[in-house]
Amino acid sequence: MNRVIKVARMQLINKGTFIGIPLIILGASFLFTLAIWWLVRRNGGDGAMYGGGAQAPMWYFLALGIQSLTLTFPFSMAMSISRRTFYLGTVALFSVCALALSVFYYLMGLLEVATDGWGMGGQFFALQWIAENNWLVQILFYFVLMVLLFMIGFLAATIYMRWRTTGMVAFFICLGVLVLGIIALFTFTNAWGEFWSWALTWTAAGVTLWGGIVALLMAGGSYLTLRKATA
After folding, report:
1. Alpha-carbon 66 to chain mean position
2. CA triplet 34, 36, 39: central angle to 5 degrees?
3. Which of 42, 86, 87, 229 is deepest in the core (most CB within 10 A)?
4. Over the stretch 9-60, which tens digit does the pLDDT of each residue have?
5. What is the mean pLDDT of residues 199-224?
6. Among 123, 125, 133, 151, residue whose Cα is nearest residue 214
7. Which residue has the higher pLDDT, 43 or 186?
């Protein structure tokens, strides 16, 4: 456990990567959204206003998943840190950061509701589809989404570290063939209508459950790949 904590501290040598940059992205997107809402109100706009900027730092976590491996894995190998310890320390650190940010999203959502959308009837943190659920579902929804995006980036990085450029090219070709096959299947069976009808019934709790399952599968795949990776 002590070595796992040391890996987490190693990742935090540059605190901006895990903490500073996500907060800057979130703060900037929030202020820009408030400015846009204010301009709309000043020009006579009415009704509820929505902003999707809260997801901006989440997409950064995809890049963070790549950086957290490619920038520090070679150094950890030089320090004789095992791949298992590196993996556990990195994922544990991000999980703590993601949980803290998820709680922050929830608390800001409560403040947003209490202030009637920052006095402008806006929805930035407390989007109705998410905010209509209890506090646990809301926090888990944000947490799972962040972890999922992180693991996507982390898995892609492990594939590169294991098989280099050839592996990445093969991976994306296989992914493209799979997506094309699914599209063809839905098209030839005229199943698109049923698919969208089914997708519209999804709830935040359902997305959280299935997103968590996919994140766990990616976590397992990235660990198995990392065991054979070289710096």
Report:
1. 12
2. 110
3. 86
4. 888 887 788 888 888 999 999 999 999 999 988 887 777 888 888 889 988 9
5. 93
6. 151
7. 186
Closest CA to 135 of 169, 174, 95, 108: 108
Q: Please provide the average confidence, as pLDDT, over all residues in the chain.
A: 90
Strand partners, 123: 50
Q: Cα dihedral sign for 60, 62, 64, 66?
A: negative
Residue whose pair of structure tokens reads 């397992």 in the numeric block: 220
203 exposed, middle or buried (CB, 10 Å; 0-12, 13-18, 19+)?
Answer: middle
Listed range (59-73, 130-144, 145-159) with the worst mean pLDDT? 59-73
How would you class 209 by CB atoms within 10 Å of its CB: exposed for 0-12, middle for 13-18, buried for 19 or more? middle
**pTM of the predicted protein model:** 0.92
Give the DSSP H or E segment for 49: strand 49-50
CB atoms under 10 Å from CB of 97, counted, come to: 20
Q: Output the CA torsion sign for 183, 185, 190, 194.
A: negative
The alpha carbon of residue 41 and the mean position of all alpha carbons in its chain are separated, in whole angstroms, by 32
**Cα–Cα dist 169/175, whole Å:** 10
Token duo for residue 110: 């409560």
